[in-house]
Every structure is written in C-alpha cells, then in structure tokens.
Amino acid sequence: MTDQAPTPYAGPERVLSGVQPTGDLHLGNYLGALVKFSRLQHEIPTFIFVADMHAITAWQEPAKLKQQVREIAAAYLATGLDPKVATIFAQSAVPEHAELAWVFNCVARLGWLDRMTQFKDKAGKHKERESVGLYTYPVLQAADILAYKATKVPVGDDQKQHLELTRDIAQKFNNDFSAPGFFPLPEPLTQGPGARVMSLRDGTAKMSKSDPSDNSRINLTDDADAIAQKVRKARTDADPLPETVAGLEGRAEAKNLVAIYAALSGKPEADVLTEYAGQGFGAFKPRLADLAVSVMGPIGGEMRRLLADPGEIDRVLTDGAVRARELAAPTVAEVKKLVGFWAG
Ligand code: TYM
Predict the structure, then answer these.
(1) What is the CATH number of the domain that holds 233?
(2) Largest CB tally within 10 Å, which of 33, 63, 64, 161?
(3) Co-location of 29 and 141 in the same domain
(4) Is residue 313 part of a domain?
C-alpha cells in the first residue's frame, strides 16, 4: 500500500439530512437542523427525509408511527422547506437505504461502532437489552447519506461522530472495492450558536425530546403562552450579562440563553451582549420570550393547519419518494456491481 491521498470526489454538491419521528420537535432540532435546511435548499440540491427506520430502533407504537412521520413532514414545510425545491420523503419509502446499509454493515468495523457515544448514552448500563438496530444505527445513517452521494449534512453538534463514521465507511468502501472517489466524504454543517442548544432547566444537559421535564425545552408546537412561560422559568444565575462572550465561561445557563437569542435573531453572540451587557435576566428574559414567540409561534400555527388536512403532506411525501429513488437507485445498483452481487 502506498500512502497516497485518496482520490477526491468529483461529483456535484448535495445536501441531505433527516430527523427521527420519535416525539415533539423542539428548539434544538429547529436551530441545530431545520432552520439550515430551508436556507440551504436555495443553494444546493437538498434531500430531507423522515427517519422512520431509525425510529424503530426503540419501540414505536405502529398505529402512531405514520402520524409521527406526518408531524415531522409538517415541521419541514412549516419551517420553510419548499417541496418544489427540496426533495422531502420518508426513509422507509426508499428501500435503497436498507439495501446499502447491509453492505455498509459489512464494511464498518465493530471497533468503530463500539466508540459511538450516542449508543453508550442511549443504552446505558443494559446494552444487552437494546435492539441490534440501535447498535448499527449509525451504519444506516451512513447509507442515508451516501445513497445520494451527499456532500453536506446539516446537523446539530451531537451528530458529528456519526458523520466521522460515515466518512470512514465511505473511504473504506472506496478502497475495498477499488472505486477511488466513488463515494464523497461528507461534511457535517454544524456552524452557528444553535449547534448545541441546552436544556432550559440545566445548562449542562442537551435539550432533548426524551427529557422527562417539558419545561426543559420549547416545542415547535407550543403556543405563545407556553413559550413565554418556559423562558420565564428557565434556570439562570443572579449576575448581570457580561460585555464579552468570554465572560459567559462557567455560566452554562446564561451562555445557553444568549446563544438561543443569537441563533433566533441571526445576530452574533457578541452583538447580543453589546446590547444587553450589564442587564439582569429580569430584563433579558422578556425580550428573549418575545423573540422566541415571534419566530416559533407561526411555525406551530402552520403545523397545526397542515396536520388538520394531511392530504397535502401525504402528496409531498409520495412525490418526494419517487424523486429520491430516482437518485438513490442507480447508486445502489452500482454498489451491487462493485461488490460483485449475483443481482448486481
Ligand atoms: P434527531 O432526530 O435526534 O435530531 C434531529 C436533528 O436535531 C439536532 N439536534 C440538536 N441540535 C442542537 N441542539 C440540540 N439540543 C439538538 N438536539 C437534536 C440533531 O443533531 C439532528 O441534526 N441521527 C439523526 C437522524 C438521522 C440523520 C441521518 C441525520 C438519520 N439519518 C442522515 C443526518 C443524515 C438523529 O437522531 O436526529
């Protein structure tokens, strides 16, 4: 083996990302992911899906799963994804994801998966009771991305490790099957103050769908009163806001609220501090609440409107699956040839 740099990928740029239909979407999902989807769709061909196959790595009530998929699709539309511009679909409607995931299961190494912190966090002390699917979850994620040869993946900070694994799988596939540059090495897009939104009750824990306290997060479907109340109750400290971002060090809750304000207003954190330096949370929180209500309120309203008559959502998902398959099928057919499958 020579130590040459890998052949670079020469294909077009593509954006792909997805969200699991496993509970109410919150401000973290919005700032870490959704807000970027609608921005990117106008720059690069964009593929956004609902990860219902990932959802069943933990038990989901079958009678509810389709509705949960519709809710995520409604959130996509309500936050500005345009189905005429972006391709929006459900993962399970494109069988190429599962087909490619199997090949990748045979490319990825156990040692790579053993390092995945999200599995360790989710499985806790009882990993032997978890589904095998939860363990190989990041392999399916690599297939989601590479079936479309996506080059950019807008996600929150917590997905960075899964993107590293995706790159490792792409690189090893290209090497193992003598296909230099076949798959790109996709990049996570995690920039910005919304990359890791923390709980409103504990500035050291990530805002999460699975936190038992509803006051820890602002849900996309919360009404104005609920949003304002959650901001008012958010944990803070007694000190006034500092003049510089460095002054927020060691003040996890204050740092989080300033980051949320910055992300929602589109201003750098430094500018937010210039505006509020010296003021206490008694003054800052009502301004943050107004901002959150003005951005999030209309999203919840639009989601409720779309979900009241799901025909439009279903049409978007049906059409999106056809378009997604048109792109994924030839790539997976090529993979089968490269691997030497009978059906290749
Ligand atoms: P999921 O459904 O857990 O989360 C969806 C997106 O929201 C981001 N996110 C956050 N961002 C900032 N602060 C937070 N507190 C926060 N919580 C969640 C996540 O980083 C994610 O971008 N594995 C993915 C779904 C997936 C996927 C993919 C993503 C499956 N296949 C292929 C990209 C490409 C997940 O669990 O997302």
Answers:
(1) 1.10.240.10
(2) 33
(3) yes
(4) yes
Q: pLDDT class for 1, splitting at 50, 70, 90?
A: low
- Residue range 40-87, pLDDT digits in tens: 999 999 999 999 999 999 999 999 999 999 999 999 999 999 999 999
**170 Cβ contact partners less than 8 Å away, ≥ 6 residues apart:** 142, 146, 183, 184, 185, 186
For residue 2, pLDDT over 60 is answered with no
Three-state DSSP at 137 gives helix
Catalytic residue of the set 160, 172, 209, 267: 209
Residue 9 counted as domain residue: no
**Residue 6 has what pLDDT?**
78
pTM score:
0.96
* pLDDT above 90: residue 7: no
Q: How far apart are CA 75 and CA 26, in angstroms?
A: 10
* Catalytic residue status for 206: yes
- Whether 29 lines ligand 1, by a CB cut-off of 6 Å, is yes
**Catalytic site residue 152?**
no
Instruction: Confirm or reject: Cβ of 26 under 6 Å from ligand 1.
Output: no
Residue tagged active-site, from 149, 206, 230, 255: 206
**Interval between CA 206 and ligand 1 midpoint (Å):** 12
Residue 206 Cβ inside 6 Å of ligand 1? The answer reads yes
Closest residue by Cα to residue 137 from 153, 117, 152, 154: 117
Distance 29 CA to ligand 1 centre (A): 7
Is the CB of 149 within 6 Å of ligand 1?
A: no
238 and 313 belong to one structural domain:
no
Q: What is the CATH number of the domain that holds 24?
A: 3.40.50.620
CB of 211 within 6 A of ligand 1: the answer is no
Residue 122, judged by CB atoms within 10 A of its CB (0-12, 13-18, 19+), counts as middle
For residue 148, the CA-to-ligand 1 centroid distance in Å is: 18
Same domain? For 287 and 315 the reply is no
What's the DSSP call for residue 223? -
* Domain limits for position 136: 15-196+309-339
Task: Write down the residue that tokens 């790539």 correspond to.
Answer: 331
Residue 277 has pLDDT above 60, yes or no: yes
Question: How would residue 308 be classed by pLDDT, with cut points 50, 70 and 90?
Answer: very high
Q: Is residue 10 one of the residues assigned to a domain?
A: no
pLDDT band at 181 (very low <50, low <70, confident <90, very high): very high
Dist. CA 100–CA 85, nearest whole Å: 26
